[in-house]
Description:
By secondary structure, the protein is an alpha/beta fold.
Amino acid sequence: MSASEIGLPMAVPARNLPERVRIHEVGPRDGLQNEKNAVPTEVKAEFIRRLAEAGLTTVEATSFVHPKWVPQLADAEALFPQVKDLPGVRLPVLVPNARGLDRALALGADRIAVFASATESFAKANLNRTVAESLAVFDPVVARAKEEGAHVRGYVSMCFGDPWEGAVPLHQVVSVCRALTDMGCDELSLGDTIGVATPGHVRELLAALNEAGVPTSSLGVHFHDTYGQALANTYAALEHGVTTVDASAGGLGGCPYARSATGNLATEDLVWMLRGLGIDTGVDLGRLVATSEWMAGRLGRPSPSRTVRALSHKEQ
Length: 316
Ligand code: HMG
Ligand code: MG
């Protein structure tokens, strides 16, 4: 059986869920930033091409961060022009500061993401700044990106727990989300960087953000799957009305500055659940699984995604 003829779950819609979800694919960025060995630029470009062909319409391509901090993505200048004109796909890139924005704009990037933290410990580890200092860096970056007509996403990491500080109070998360919204970010992505969230916590944070005037329509969710809770957390977010979900093909991922972070929610596991719920994503699951199998071959280890494994076995 070929990858494009594999099985799909029976679609049984549930009540009060969105009709369509936009998957924000982060494999090439969040996935590959954590690889021990550098992945060749050509392989990254091919990965992005295959993800686009599988129907993913938003693929986070790379980061314009300091090459010494994230050497795995030091080839951003070589990679981005190779994928920039792929049809039908938006290619957001991460920028940590004005220098990163300059680099991204010089190559014609039109979707950028700044990345803040809800905790001081991670702000320091990831950006070498306090939370307030990093927000002060982002303010003019967001303003200039908007002036240049770019779409701006604001990530907030450690929304549900922090490896150094433990529990993270809701008000801390809300205050950073509010600051990014006030700066003019078009959307926010709520990061469970170390995968400790559970569904009730997700619901509580979304409600607290709404109460603070941050609308659900501007919110995406970004779950790492360390404790196997990412799909349950996603379901809770869908019930709340969230329609943007971050995921990583094959479950690649982690964060080099938070050792307890493992891979993101696998895009295949997400697509399987959404197909079963009758929610449209536009993604061809067979082509996506084939892409993750191909990437697993390049990385020399199997994908941790349950769906990739199940469907790969089916083909033998
Ligand atoms: P720093 O060392 O404080 O930088 O790093 P600085 O501002 O002091 O500048 C030092 C030198 O670096 C200067 O050069 C700058 O020009 C240069 P010099 O004048 O000495 O010759 N520099 C740069 N060069 C190239 N590109 C740049 C850049 N910026 C400065 N953009 C910095 C501060 C923010 C740069 C650094 O900490 C950094 O790059 N951090 C990035 C860390 C990162 O990428 N982490 C992973 C992404 S976040 C994540 O994964 C979480 C997420 O998935 C959500 C979730 O799961 O929670 C998004
Ligand atoms: Mg992440």
